[in-house]
Amino acid sequence: MKSKKIITLLAAATVTLTAATGVAATQAEQTQAASVKKSKYGFKKSFTFPTSWRGKWYSTNNLTPSPMNIQKTSFDTPWTNEHVKAVKVGKVKGTNKYPWQMTKAWKLKNAGVFEKYTRVTTKKINGEKWIVLSPVDQKSTKKGYAFTVKTELIDGKKEPVLFQSHPQEGKVTNQFFTSEELAKKYATYEFKDMTYSKVNPRQ
């Protein structure tokens, strides 16, 4: 009886081990496939937004009808409410070129993919550190948006504010708050520690 029980236990352990190995192999394949797919387009790795940035941010600006909804490695744009993944850009697999160095035909062929991603770079402008989100297939960040989060004193209480600016000027063109009430009340307020653009009004 004992030997029969041992054989049964060994058989069960073998099945469990085989299943576990299969799952591990599948996960490894999926990870490898994801890595290959990303490098195929020149996506080096996903960008992780700081924890303090995550959540919904509200603005009353007519150009941003939706909240800026930031997740761990992606966000829903306030302009079109589309879900976009944030990535650091590297060289395209099998080439020694960045996406913006590839041919026009290659860019057009992969335009649908690029629409779902944004390139992330960090930049210091006017003494402030900004996270710049721009098209992945362009070297220049002129067509992008720069963001930074700072803690400001509002009604005697410390509140986080998400500032948006032109990626080269560092002048605030829009600001987001953690609630619709704050956004309505302070949409046009100018915080003393920030420089504001007069070109793009904030409401």
Q: Would you give an account of this structure?
A:
The chain starts with a helix and ends in a 17-residue tail after the last helix. The chain is elongated, with a radius of gyration of 24 Å. A hairpin with a 6-residue loop joins strand 9 (157-165) and strand 10. The chain is α+β, with helices and mostly antiparallel strands and 203 residues long. Strands 1, 2, 3, 4, 5, 6, 7, 8, 9 and 10 form a 10-stranded mixed sheet that branches. The protein contains 4 helices and 10 strands; from the N terminus they run αβββββααβββββα.
Mean pLDDT: 83
* Number of DSSP E strands: 10
From the helix content, strand content and strand pairing, which structural class follows?
Answer: alpha+beta
Main β-sheet, in a few words?
10 strands, mixed
The N- and C-terminal alpha carbons lie at a distance of 82 Å
Low-confidence stretches: 1-36
Shape: elongated
Count of alpha/pi helices: 4
Cα-atom Rg, whole angstroms?
24 Å
- Percent helix, as a range, is 25-40%
Residues in β-strands, percent: 25-35%
What is the H/E order? HEEEEEHHEEEEEH
Quaternary form:
single chain
SSE topology:
Layout (H helix, E strand, L loop, with lengths): L1 H40 L1 E4 L8 E3 L10 E3 L3 E3 L6 E7 L14 H6 L1 H4 L2 E9 L2 E7 L10 E10 L2 E9 L6 E5 L3 H7 L17
Parallel strand pairs: 5-6
Antiparallel strand pairs: 1-5, 2-3, 3-4, 4-5, 6-7, 7-8, 8-9, 9-10
